[in-house]
C-alpha cells in the first residue's frame, strides 16, 4: 500500500503523505501539488519510470501494481504558462476597456493592480467578477476564472464594493455593497436602500465622514467603509455597549 509519494522536481524533491491527504488518483495528486507548489493542474506533467501519467482518473495503486515498498517516486515537469489577452471593463468609468496581456498563472490581484495604476482607485474597493462568481478572492489564479468570451477577448468585469456599517440600536450590522448591482449614483442612494429595509424601525442617516456627504457621487468614493445609523422612533438616549455582527 502506497503511503507517500516522492515528487522529483526541478528544484529538488518533496514528499506528499498519501494517507493524510487522502490521495487516491492522479488528479488528487495534481491537486495536492497545486496546493503546495501553486503549479496549475493543466501545467503539470507527471511521469513514473518514464511513462506519462495522462489519465487523471488513474488510481495510484495501479501505477506500479508490483510495488513492494510503501513509497513511490514520480517526476514532475511544469510547462510554461501562456500569455492570455483580457479586456478589463471598468463599469463605473465612461472610458474605453483596458486590454492587457497577463500570464495565466497571474492572480486576480494582478488585474486589480492594473486598474489601480490606470484609474488610481484603491485596490481594496475593486472587485472582479466571472461567470458563476462575484468578488473573486485576490489570490485566485487567472486560469481558474471562467471569464466570458467576446470575439478574441475574454472580458473581465471590474466593479467596486464598499462596506456599510449600520448602527441599529445596540447592534452594528455589516454588509458589503457591490455598487454595480444597484442603481447607485450617490451615497444618498445607499441611504435610501437602507431606509427601505430599516424604515419600520426609524429614519436612516449617514454619520459624518471627512470629504463625503450624501450628494457625493460614488465615482468619487475612495474609502471602503461608511457608517449609517438608524434613529429609532421615540428613541431614548441610552449608553449601551455595541454588538458587531459579522
SSE blueprint:
Elements: E1 4-9, E2 12-17, H1 26-37, E3 44-48, E4 51-52, E5 71-78, E6 83-90, E7 98-103, H2 108-119, E8 126-129, E9 149-150, E10 153-168, E11 171-178, H3 187-198, E12 202-206, E13 225-232, E14 243-245
Parallel strand pairs: 1-5, 6-10, 10-13, 11-14
Antiparallel strand pairs: 1-2, 3-4, 3-5, 6-7, 8-10, 9-10, 10-11, 12-13
Protein name: Ubiquitin-like domain-containing protein
Order of helices and strands: EEHEEEEEHEEEEHEEE
Name of the level-1 CATH class of the largest domain: Alpha Beta
Number of helices: 3
CATH topology of the largest domain: Ubiquitin-like (UB roll)
Q: How many distinct folded domains?
A: 3
Tell me what the CATH architecture of the largest domain is: Roll
State the helicity in percent bands: 10-25%
Give the terminus-to-terminus CA distance: 46 Å
CATH superfamily of the largest domain: Phosphatidylinositol 3-kinase Catalytic Subunit, Chain A, domain 1
What share of residues are in beta strands? 35-45%
Query: What integer is the average pLDDT?
Result: 86
Computed Rg = 26 Å
Taking pLDDT < 50 over at least 5 consecutive residues as the criterion, the unreliable ranges are: 241-246
Instruction: Please summarize the sheet with the most strands.
Output: 9 strands, mixed
User: What structural class results from the helix and strand content?
Assistant: alpha/beta
Amino acid at each position: 500500500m502506497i503511503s507517500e509519494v516522492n515528487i522529483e522536481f526541478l528544484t529538488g524533491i518533496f514528499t506528499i503523505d498519501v494517507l493524510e491527504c487522502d490521495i487516491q488518483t492522479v488528479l488528487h495528486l495534481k491537486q495536492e501539488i497545486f496546493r503546495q507548489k501553486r503549479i496549475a493542474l493543466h501545467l503539470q506533467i507527471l511521469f513514473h519510470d518514464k511513462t506519462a501519467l495522462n489519465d487523471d482518473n488513474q488510481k495510484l495503486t495501479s501505477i506500479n501494481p508490483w510495488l513492494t515498498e510503501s513509497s513511490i517516486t514520480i517526476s514532475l515537469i511544469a510547462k510554461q504558462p501562456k500569455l492570455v489577452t483580457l479586456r478589463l471593463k471598468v463599469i463605473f468609468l465612461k472610458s474605453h476597456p483596458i486590454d492587457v496581456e497577463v500570464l495565466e498563472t497571474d492572480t486576480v490581484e494582478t488585474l486589480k493592480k492594473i486598474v489601480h495604476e490606470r484609474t488610481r482607485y484603491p485596490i481594496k474597493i475593486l472587485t472582479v467578477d466571472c461567470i458563476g462568481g462575484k468578488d473573486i478572492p485576490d489570490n485566485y489564479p487567472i486560469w481558474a476564472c471562467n471569464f466570458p468570451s467576446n470575439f478574441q477577448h475574454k472580458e473581465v468585469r471590474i466593479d467596486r464594493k464598499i462596506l456599510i456599517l449600520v448602527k441599529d440600536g445596540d447592534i452594528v450590522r455589516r454588509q458589503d455593497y457591490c455598487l454595480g448591482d444597484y442603481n447607485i449614483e450617490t451615497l444618498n442612494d445607499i441611504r435610501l436602500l437602507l431606509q427601505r429595509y430599516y424604515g419600520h424601525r426609524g429614519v436612516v442617516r449617514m454619520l459624518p465622514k471627512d470629504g463625503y456627504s450624501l450628494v457625493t457621487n460614488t465615482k468619487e468614493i475612495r474609502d471602503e467603509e461608511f457608517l449609517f445609523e438608524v434613529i429609532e422612533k421615540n428613541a431614548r438616549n441610552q449608553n449601551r455597549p455595541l454588538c458587531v455582527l459579522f
